[in-house]
């Protein structure tokens, strides 16, 4: 089982560029999440989805967009990248309840210069 | 006030030591308490979760909750170099928002 797969692992963007962070899971989980992790700040929820076609904002959604056209995929789109978006991004998935085990991908380290 | 606060460390201990990792939380309504372990350049993985107060033991790891003080702890007995990682506490609220602590980086020296 691959679990949660994120691509790319590393990326450097220039200010104003756009990109999509890819996330795929093969566990048939309904819930998927995007977090960002900044040094000394903990993990913050950007967006989440409870199933295909359903997405909702988390704590820090500004500057990001998501879509969920299939159960497996949950891409995160950055429009007009800013230095404040320099972070490590983690995708995660879980079965129906967050109280079940939350599976994380290995992360994408993004630098915006 | 943050929902969850965690001692930032870093913490460095010799192999075989007992390690204590701690978090405090603000909302007395919280019921579930989780500990995640995160190795360098990897995503967090769930280590343990407990419900309400008391202790839960899993091998060398013990999770403890004191609801009267709003204080949770993770103890690691006989610590090993392979335990070197960042440990994050996490607490879900009633709406399934998951609040993470900032993490404590632990190094176990052989």
Tell the overall outline of chain B.
globular
Binned strand content of chain B: over 45%
The coarse silhouette of chain A is globular
Q: Which structural class fits the helix and strand makeup of chain A? A: mainly beta
Instruction: Give the fraction of residues assigned to helices of chain A.
Output: under 10%
What kind of sheet is the major sheet of chain B? Answer: 6 strands, mixed
The SSE string of chain A, one letter per element, is EEEEEEEEEEE
Can you tell me about this structure?
- The complex is a heterodimer of chains A (113) and B (110).
- Chain A has 113 residues and is mainly β.
- Chain A contains no helices and eleven strands.
- In chain A, strands 2, 4, 5, 6, 9, 10 and 11 form a seven-stranded mixed sheet that branches.
- The N and C termini of chain B lie far apart (38 Å).
- Chain B has strands at residues 4-6, 11-14, 19-25, 32-38, 45-51, 54-58, 61-66, 71-76, 85-92, 98-100, 104-109.
- In chain B, strand 9 (85-92) and strand 10 form a beta hairpin.
- The mean pLDDT of chain B is 92.
- In chain B, strands 2, 4, 5, 9, 10 and 11 form a six-stranded mixed sheet that branches. A five-stranded antiparallel sheet of chain B has the order 1-3-8-7-6, with no helix packed on it.
Task: Describe the structure using short key phrases.
heterodimer, A: 113 residues, mainly beta, 7-stranded mixed β-sheet, 0% helix, B: 110 residues, 6-stranded mixed β-sheet, globular
What's the gist of this structure?
Helix content of chain A is 0%, strand content 51%. With 113 residues, chain A is mostly beta strands. In chain A, the strands form two sheets. In chain A, strands 2, 4, 5, 6, 9, 10 and 11 form a seven-stranded mixed beta sheet that branches.
Describe the secondary structure blueprint for this structure.
The complex is a heterodimer of chains A (113) and B (110).
Chain A: E1 4-7, E2 10-13, E3 19-25, E4 31-38, E5 42-51, E6 54-57, E7 64-66, E8 76-78, E9 87-94, E10 103-104, E11 108-112
Parallel strand pairs in A: 2-11
Antiparallel strand pairs in A: 1-3, 3-8, 4-5, 4-9, 5-6, 7-8, 9-10, 9-11
Chain B: E1 4-6, E2 11-14, E3 19-25, E4 32-38, E5 45-51, E6 54-58, E7 61-66, E8 71-76, E9 85-92, E10 98-100, E11 104-109
Parallel strand pairs in B: 2-11
Antiparallel strand pairs in B: 1-3, 3-8, 4-5, 4-9, 6-7, 7-8, 9-10, 9-11
């Amino acid at each position: 089982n691959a679990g949660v797969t994120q691509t790319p692992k590393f990326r450097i963007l220039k200010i104003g560029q756009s990109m999509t962070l890819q996330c795929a899971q093969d566990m048939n989980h309904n819930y998927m999440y995007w977090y960002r992790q900044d040094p000394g700040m903990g993990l913050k929820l950007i967006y989440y989805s409870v199933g295909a076609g359903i997405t909702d904002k988390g704590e820090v959604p500004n500057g990001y967009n998501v879509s969920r056209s299939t159960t497996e995929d949950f891409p995160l789109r950055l429009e007009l990248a800013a230095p404040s978006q320099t972070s490590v991004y983690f995708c995660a998935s879980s079965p129906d309840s967050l109280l079940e085990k939350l599976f994380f991908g290995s992360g994408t380290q993004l630098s915006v210069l | 006030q943050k929902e969850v606060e965690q001692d930032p460390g870093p913490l460095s201990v010799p192999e075989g030591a007992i390690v204590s990792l701690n978090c405090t939380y603000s909302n007395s309504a919280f019921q579930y308490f989780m500990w995640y372990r995160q190795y360098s350049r990897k995503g967090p993985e769930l280590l343990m979760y407990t419900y309400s107060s008391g202790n839960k033991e899993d091998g060398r790891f013990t999770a403890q909750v004191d609801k009267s003080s709003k204080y949770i702890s993770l103890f690691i007995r006989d610590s090993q170099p392979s335990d070197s990682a960042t440990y994050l506490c996490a607490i879900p609220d009633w709406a399934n928002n998951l609040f993470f602590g900032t993490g404590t980086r632990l190094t176990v020296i052989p």
